[in-house]
Amino acid sequence: MSAPSITDPIEVRGLRVRNRIWIAPMCQYSVMAYDGVPTAWHRVHYGALASGGTGMLVVEATAIAPEGRITRQDTGLWNDEQRDAWRPIVDFAHQAGAAIGVQLSHAGAKAGTFAGFGRDGDRRGSVPIDEGGWPTVSASDEAILGLAAPRALATSELDGIVAAFVAAAQRAVEAGFDVVEVHGAHGYLLHQFLSPLTNRRVDGYGGDLAGRSRLLLDVVRAIRAELPALPVLVRLSATDWTDGGLDEQQAAQVAAWALEAGADFVDASSGGVVLAEIPVGPGYQVHLAERIAAEGVPVSAVGLIETAEQANAVLRGGVAAVRVGRAALRDPNLPIRWAGELGVDVDWHPQQYRRAY
Ligand SMILES: Cc1cc2nc3c(=O)[nH]c(=O)nc-3n(C[C@H](O)[C@H](O)[C@H](O)COP(=O)(O)O)c2cc1C
User: Residue 191 falls within a domain, yes or no?
Assistant: First the structure.
């Protein structure tokens, strides 16, 4: 069978997605009222991306609880006001022909930091409690990345974390989102459980890979039980790029378990729990997605995939879709442009712009 093209449609749990050029979640840190409610910026930003031809746009890491925000300027889905503010963004994406998802997130020990927009973010780290920060939680009580030390979550608190993910997923469905993505990557709470570098627990949520995966899999299973028809993506950091950390073999196993638990798709990112030497370059994470694809798990690749030819080559390696981040910030119309470069005639542009094509 020949490999699909990035311009080919794909189905995810009954959801038809018009192509395989997807927008990766990207924090905007633009909720200046600190209430988690998306703003005019989110409407314009996501509107532009949805109009640019993507098959699936997944909006930024959106907190399932106030204390799960990376910064005070994060979006949330822990209350109905937030849900209602997402609705016009979702409706607009649908009018533009894009599927739209939300990345559900709890930052754990990486919560409560200063928001920064530069390449390295803001280096001031944790916001002091008396300046509006809050105590953080994690798998263990060791500080990471120079941030304030978290409190290890008690076993009895973990059902509450799972329930908060499910409640946010429920609100996502009420807002009209087609997909939810469980954020299991980049050193945030679920990754803090997955990684042996940050999980020193001695209860059933630590120890071997099965124990460390348990919270993530509980979240996936609980969302699946509550929302049987909802397509669920899981984003993993498929390596910690550090000896003794999570590696690509373990990540492929977790991806297979996530599929069994009811996920439909995995995205292979990397890093975030410790500082590591990451060999950043074109397609530097593609091999991680290929390793997961080898388990028979539908998977997307991400990370410096910046040309149409390169993206199509990625699909030839067994990966089902590509996700783009920064290149789509530079040009929200990148999917339409890539189709043109491949000589594929598409109708993904808004009809209002027809005279331009
Ligand atoms: C501004 C910005 C914000 C990001 N925020 C998130 C996020 O909210 N959740 C997430 O999983 N990844 C986030 N990422 C990582 C991207 O989703 C993506 O994996 C990364 O940028 C690599 O892809 P690229 O080379 O195509 O940009 C962010 C990246 C950027 C540039």
Answer: yes
Instruction: Answer yes or no: 357 catalytic.
Output: no
Q: Among 27, 285, 329, 330, which is best to mutate for testing ligand 1, by the most ligand atoms less than 8 A from CB?
A: 27
Is 122 a residue whose pLDDT tops 80?
no
**Collapsing DSSP states into helix, strand and coil, what is residue 29?**
coil
Q: Is the pLDDT of residue 121 over 80?
A: no
Q: What is the CATH number of the domain that holds 149?
A: 3.20.20.70
- Domain membership of residue 314 as a residue range: 10-356
- Residue 264's contacts (CB-CB under 8 Å, 6 or more residues apart) are 12, 13, 231, 232, 233, 298
Domains in the chain, number: 1
Flag whether 336 is in a domain: yes
Mean pLDDT confidence for 87-104: 98
Ligand 1 pocket test: which of 29, 62, 326, 338 has the largest number of ligand atoms within 8 Å of its C-beta?
326
Residue 67 near residue 111 (C-beta atoms within 8 A)? yes
User: Which residues form the pocket of ligand 1, taking CB atoms under 6 Å from any ligand atom?
Assistant: 24-27, 60-61, 103, 183, 185-186, 235, 269, 302-304, 324-327
pLDDT computed for residue 118 by the predictor: 79
Bridge-based pairing of strands 10-12 and 15-17 is antiparallel
**From 29, 46, 188, 205, the catalytic residue:** 188
